[in-house]
Design brief:
Elements: E1 2-6, E2 9-11, E3 19-20, E4 23-24, E5 31-33, H1 35-49, E6 55-62, H2 67-76, E7 80-85, H3 96-110, E8 114-118, H4 129-137, E9 141-151, E10 154-161, E11 164-171, E12 174-178, H5 190-196, E13 201-205, H6 236-245
Parallel strand pairs: 1-6, 1-8, 6-7, 7-13, 8-12, 9-12
Antiparallel strand pairs: 2-5, 3-4, 9-10, 10-11
Helix pairs in contact: 2-5, 3-4
The structure holds adenosine monophosphate.
Main location: mitochondrion
Organism: Paramecium tetraurelia
Family: Belongs to the ETF beta-subunit/FixA family.
Length: 250
Protein backbone atom coordinates (compact mmCIF):
# COMPACT_ATOMS: atom_id res chain seq x y z
CA UNK A 1 0.00 0.00 0.00
CA UNK A 2 1.25 3.48 -0.91
CA UNK A 3 0.47 6.61 1.07
CA UNK A 4 0.76 10.21 -0.08
CA UNK A 5 1.25 12.71 2.76
CA UNK A 6 0.65 16.38 1.97
CA UNK A 7 2.88 18.74 3.93
CA UNK A 8 2.73 22.52 3.86
CA UNK A 9 5.39 24.99 4.93
CA UNK A 10 4.00 27.70 7.19
CA UNK A 11 5.16 30.47 9.52
CA UNK A 12 6.34 28.92 12.81
CA UNK A 13 3.52 29.03 15.36
CA UNK A 14 5.86 30.51 18.00
CA UNK A 15 6.53 33.63 15.92
CA UNK A 16 4.77 36.92 16.54
CA UNK A 17 3.92 37.92 12.99
CA UNK A 18 3.87 41.41 11.52
CA UNK A 19 0.56 42.01 9.77
CA UNK A 20 0.44 44.30 6.75
CA UNK A 21 -2.72 45.11 4.75
CA UNK A 22 -1.45 42.90 1.93
CA UNK A 23 -0.80 39.96 4.27
CA UNK A 24 1.61 38.59 6.85
CA UNK A 25 5.15 39.93 6.35
CA UNK A 26 7.15 36.81 5.49
CA UNK A 27 10.49 38.65 5.24
CA UNK A 28 13.06 36.89 7.44
CA UNK A 29 10.36 34.98 9.35
CA UNK A 30 11.05 31.48 10.73
CA UNK A 31 9.08 28.89 8.75
CA UNK A 32 8.37 25.28 9.63
CA UNK A 33 6.27 22.28 8.62
CA UNK A 34 2.56 22.84 9.39
CA UNK A 35 2.05 21.04 12.76
CA UNK A 36 -0.98 19.04 11.55
CA UNK A 37 1.04 17.89 8.51
CA UNK A 38 3.87 16.72 10.80
CA UNK A 39 1.26 14.65 12.69
CA UNK A 40 0.15 13.17 9.33
CA UNK A 41 3.76 12.18 8.51
CA UNK A 42 4.20 10.63 11.97
CA UNK A 43 1.01 8.61 11.52
CA UNK A 44 2.19 7.34 8.13
CA UNK A 45 5.50 6.29 9.69
CA UNK A 46 3.68 4.46 12.52
CA UNK A 47 1.49 2.63 9.97
CA UNK A 48 4.62 1.65 8.07
CA UNK A 49 6.29 0.43 11.27
CA UNK A 50 3.22 -1.79 11.82
CA UNK A 51 3.79 -3.06 8.25
CA UNK A 52 0.36 -1.81 7.18
CA UNK A 53 1.80 0.33 4.41
CA UNK A 54 4.83 -0.16 2.19
CA UNK A 55 5.76 3.30 0.95
CA UNK A 56 5.35 6.88 2.17
CA UNK A 57 5.63 9.75 -0.30
CA UNK A 58 5.60 13.31 1.06
CA UNK A 59 4.48 16.13 -1.22
CA UNK A 60 4.56 19.89 -0.91
CA UNK A 61 3.44 22.63 -3.25
CA UNK A 62 5.32 25.88 -2.90
CA UNK A 63 8.55 27.84 -3.36
CA UNK A 64 12.01 26.26 -3.33
CA UNK A 65 12.34 26.60 0.47
CA UNK A 66 9.47 24.08 0.73
CA UNK A 67 12.14 21.43 0.20
CA UNK A 68 13.06 21.96 3.89
CA UNK A 69 9.64 20.62 4.96
CA UNK A 70 10.10 17.66 2.63
CA UNK A 71 13.55 16.90 4.09
CA UNK A 72 11.97 17.05 7.54
CA UNK A 73 9.29 14.53 6.45
CA UNK A 74 12.04 12.32 4.97
CA UNK A 75 13.99 12.54 8.24
CA UNK A 76 10.88 11.46 10.17
CA UNK A 77 10.60 8.37 7.94
CA UNK A 78 9.02 9.18 4.56
CA UNK A 79 10.63 7.22 1.70
CA UNK A 80 10.40 9.74 -1.13
CA UNK A 81 9.30 13.30 -1.73
CA UNK A 82 7.69 15.32 -4.48
CA UNK A 83 8.15 19.09 -4.66
CA UNK A 84 5.63 20.86 -6.90
CA UNK A 85 7.32 24.21 -7.37
CA UNK A 86 5.77 27.65 -7.67
CA UNK A 87 6.97 31.06 -6.54
CA UNK A 88 3.39 32.12 -5.68
CA UNK A 89 2.66 32.88 -2.00
CA UNK A 90 1.40 29.63 -0.48
CA UNK A 91 -0.58 31.43 2.23
CA UNK A 92 -2.52 33.45 -0.35
CA UNK A 93 -2.25 32.45 -4.00
CA UNK A 94 -2.00 28.66 -3.67
CA UNK A 95 -5.57 28.00 -2.58
CA UNK A 96 -7.30 24.80 -1.41
CA UNK A 97 -8.92 23.95 -4.75
CA UNK A 98 -5.59 24.44 -6.55
CA UNK A 99 -3.80 22.19 -4.06
CA UNK A 100 -6.57 19.58 -4.22
CA UNK A 101 -6.46 19.57 -8.04
CA UNK A 102 -2.69 19.06 -8.06
CA UNK A 103 -2.81 16.31 -5.42
CA UNK A 104 -5.57 14.58 -7.43
CA UNK A 105 -3.26 14.60 -10.50
CA UNK A 106 -0.48 12.98 -8.46
CA UNK A 107 -2.88 10.37 -7.03
CA UNK A 108 -3.99 9.48 -10.56
CA UNK A 109 -0.38 9.36 -11.78
CA UNK A 110 1.09 7.24 -8.94
CA UNK A 111 -1.90 5.19 -7.67
CA UNK A 112 -1.90 5.87 -3.94
CA UNK A 113 -4.22 3.92 -1.63
CA UNK A 114 -4.43 6.61 1.03
CA UNK A 115 -3.81 10.35 1.31
CA UNK A 116 -2.96 11.67 4.78
CA UNK A 117 -3.13 15.41 5.32
CA UNK A 118 -3.28 17.96 8.09
CA UNK A 119 -6.81 18.95 9.13
CA UNK A 120 -5.86 22.58 8.57
CA UNK A 121 -3.00 24.86 7.59
CA UNK A 122 -2.21 27.20 10.48
CA UNK A 123 -1.46 30.11 8.13
CA UNK A 124 -4.68 30.38 6.14
CA UNK A 125 -6.89 28.22 8.44
CA UNK A 126 -8.93 27.01 5.47
CA UNK A 127 -9.60 23.41 6.56
CA UNK A 128 -10.82 22.65 3.02
CA UNK A 129 -8.13 20.89 1.01
CA UNK A 130 -8.69 17.31 2.23
CA UNK A 131 -12.44 17.59 1.73
CA UNK A 132 -11.98 18.99 -1.79
CA UNK A 133 -9.47 16.29 -2.71
CA UNK A 134 -11.86 13.54 -1.58
CA UNK A 135 -14.59 15.19 -3.66
CA UNK A 136 -12.42 15.43 -6.77
CA UNK A 137 -11.30 11.80 -6.47
CA UNK A 138 -14.78 10.63 -5.44
CA UNK A 139 -13.13 8.88 -2.47
CA UNK A 140 -14.48 8.50 1.06
CA UNK A 141 -12.93 10.75 3.67
CA UNK A 142 -12.55 11.04 7.42
CA UNK A 143 -11.65 14.47 8.77
CA UNK A 144 -10.27 15.42 12.23
CA UNK A 145 -8.82 11.95 12.89
CA UNK A 146 -7.64 11.21 16.42
CA UNK A 147 -7.11 7.47 15.85
CA UNK A 148 -6.55 5.46 12.67
CA UNK A 149 -6.67 1.66 12.38
CA UNK A 150 -6.23 -0.14 9.07
CA UNK A 151 -7.29 -3.79 8.71
CA UNK A 152 -7.66 -5.72 5.45
CA UNK A 153 -7.89 -2.57 3.34
CA UNK A 154 -10.50 -0.96 5.59
CA UNK A 155 -9.73 2.23 7.54
CA UNK A 156 -11.43 2.75 10.88
CA UNK A 157 -11.07 6.32 12.06
CA UNK A 158 -12.08 8.00 15.30
CA UNK A 159 -13.04 11.60 14.54
CA UNK A 160 -13.10 14.48 16.99
CA UNK A 161 -16.50 16.10 16.71
CA UNK A 162 -18.33 18.65 18.86
CA UNK A 163 -19.10 17.01 22.16
CA UNK A 164 -17.49 13.63 21.53
CA UNK A 165 -15.80 11.10 19.32
CA UNK A 166 -17.31 9.55 16.22
CA UNK A 167 -16.02 6.28 14.73
CA UNK A 168 -16.33 5.80 10.99
CA UNK A 169 -14.97 3.19 8.61
CA UNK A 170 -14.50 2.93 4.88
CA UNK A 171 -12.80 0.77 2.32
CA UNK A 172 -9.59 2.29 0.99
CA UNK A 173 -8.68 4.25 -1.08
CA UNK A 174 -9.60 7.31 0.92
CA UNK A 175 -8.50 10.63 2.39
CA UNK A 176 -7.85 11.20 6.10
CA UNK A 177 -7.13 14.58 7.69
CA UNK A 178 -5.24 14.48 10.98
CA UNK A 179 -6.13 16.27 14.20
CA UNK A 180 -3.91 17.33 17.09
CA UNK A 181 -4.45 14.36 19.42
CA UNK A 182 -3.72 11.68 16.78
CA UNK A 183 -0.09 11.34 17.90
CA UNK A 184 2.97 13.15 19.20
CA UNK A 185 5.49 13.43 16.34
CA UNK A 186 8.96 12.05 17.10
CA UNK A 187 12.13 14.15 16.91
CA UNK A 188 14.19 13.55 13.81
CA UNK A 189 17.49 11.98 14.90
CA UNK A 190 20.77 13.30 13.47
CA UNK A 191 21.48 10.04 11.55
CA UNK A 192 17.96 10.22 10.05
CA UNK A 193 18.46 13.88 9.11
CA UNK A 194 21.67 12.83 7.31
CA UNK A 195 19.93 9.87 5.65
CA UNK A 196 17.10 12.14 4.46
CA UNK A 197 19.59 14.09 2.33
CA UNK A 198 20.06 11.10 0.03
CA UNK A 199 16.41 10.03 -0.24
CA UNK A 200 14.77 10.70 -3.65
CA UNK A 201 13.14 14.11 -4.14
CA UNK A 202 11.34 14.71 -7.42
CA UNK A 203 10.75 18.32 -8.50
CA UNK A 204 7.85 19.18 -10.81
CA UNK A 205 7.04 22.74 -11.93
CA UNK A 206 3.42 23.49 -10.97
CA UNK A 207 2.43 24.35 -14.55
CA UNK A 208 3.14 20.75 -15.61
CA UNK A 209 0.27 19.60 -13.35
CA UNK A 210 -2.17 22.49 -13.39
CA UNK A 211 -2.48 26.18 -12.73
CA UNK A 212 -3.40 28.57 -9.96
CA UNK A 213 -6.89 30.00 -10.32
CA UNK A 214 -6.82 32.76 -7.71
CA UNK A 215 -10.53 32.16 -7.28
CA UNK A 216 -10.54 33.85 -3.85
CA UNK A 217 -9.19 37.41 -3.66
CA UNK A 218 -7.90 38.51 -0.26
CA UNK A 219 -9.04 42.11 0.00
CA UNK A 220 -7.49 43.05 3.34
CA UNK A 221 -5.58 41.52 6.25
CA UNK A 222 -5.78 43.06 9.72
CA UNK A 223 -4.17 42.21 13.05
CA UNK A 224 -6.65 41.32 15.79
CA UNK A 225 -7.61 44.20 18.10
CA UNK A 226 -5.13 44.59 20.95
CA UNK A 227 -6.69 43.17 24.12
CA UNK A 228 -6.88 45.48 27.15
CA UNK A 229 -5.12 44.18 30.23
CA UNK A 230 -7.27 42.65 32.99
CA UNK A 231 -7.65 44.13 36.49
CA UNK A 232 -7.50 42.52 39.92
CA UNK A 233 -10.38 43.55 42.17
CA UNK A 234 -10.27 43.47 45.98
CA UNK A 235 -13.34 41.32 46.58
CA UNK A 236 -16.54 39.86 45.09
CA UNK A 237 -18.59 42.92 46.03
CA UNK A 238 -16.31 45.21 43.98
CA UNK A 239 -16.43 42.71 41.11
CA UNK A 240 -20.24 42.67 41.14
CA UNK A 241 -20.35 46.44 41.27
CA UNK A 242 -18.00 46.74 38.28
CA UNK A 243 -20.01 44.18 36.32
CA UNK A 244 -23.16 46.18 37.08
CA UNK A 245 -21.90 49.72 36.53
CA UNK A 246 -19.02 49.38 34.04
CA UNK A 247 -19.76 46.26 32.01
CA UNK A 248 -23.53 46.80 32.48
CA UNK A 249 -24.13 43.05 32.51
CA UNK A 250 -27.18 43.28 34.76
P1 LIG B 1 -6.07 23.92 4.40
O1 LIG B 1 -7.26 23.40 3.66
O2 LIG B 1 -5.34 25.04 3.68
O3 LIG B 1 -6.37 24.28 5.84
O4 LIG B 1 -4.97 22.73 4.45
C1 LIG B 1 -5.28 21.42 4.91
C2 LIG B 1 -4.16 20.50 4.53
O5 LIG B 1 -3.98 20.47 3.11
C3 LIG B 1 -2.77 20.85 5.06
O6 LIG B 1 -2.60 20.46 6.40
C4 LIG B 1 -1.88 20.04 4.11
O7 LIG B 1 -1.90 18.66 4.44
C5 LIG B 1 -2.62 20.22 2.78
N1 LIG B 1 -2.07 21.38 2.04
C6 LIG B 1 -2.56 22.63 1.96
N2 LIG B 1 -1.76 23.42 1.23
C7 LIG B 1 -0.71 22.65 0.84
C8 LIG B 1 0.47 22.88 0.07
N3 LIG B 1 0.75 24.08 -0.46
N4 LIG B 1 1.32 21.83 -0.12
C9 LIG B 1 1.04 20.61 0.40
N5 LIG B 1 -0.05 20.34 1.13
C10 LIG B 1 -0.91 21.34 1.36
Amino acid sequence: MKVLVAVKRVVDSGIKVRVKPEGIDLQGVKMTINPFCEIAVEEAVRLKEKKLIAEIVAVTIGPKQGAESLRHALALGADKAIHVTTEARIDQAVQPLDVANILAKLVERDNYNLVLMGKQSIDDDFNQTGQMLAGLLDWPQATFASNIQITDGVAQVIREIDGGLQTVKFKLPGVITCDLRLNQPRFASVPNIMKAKSKPLETIPLDKLGKLHNSIQITKTEAPAVRKGGAIVENVDVLLQKLRTEAKLF
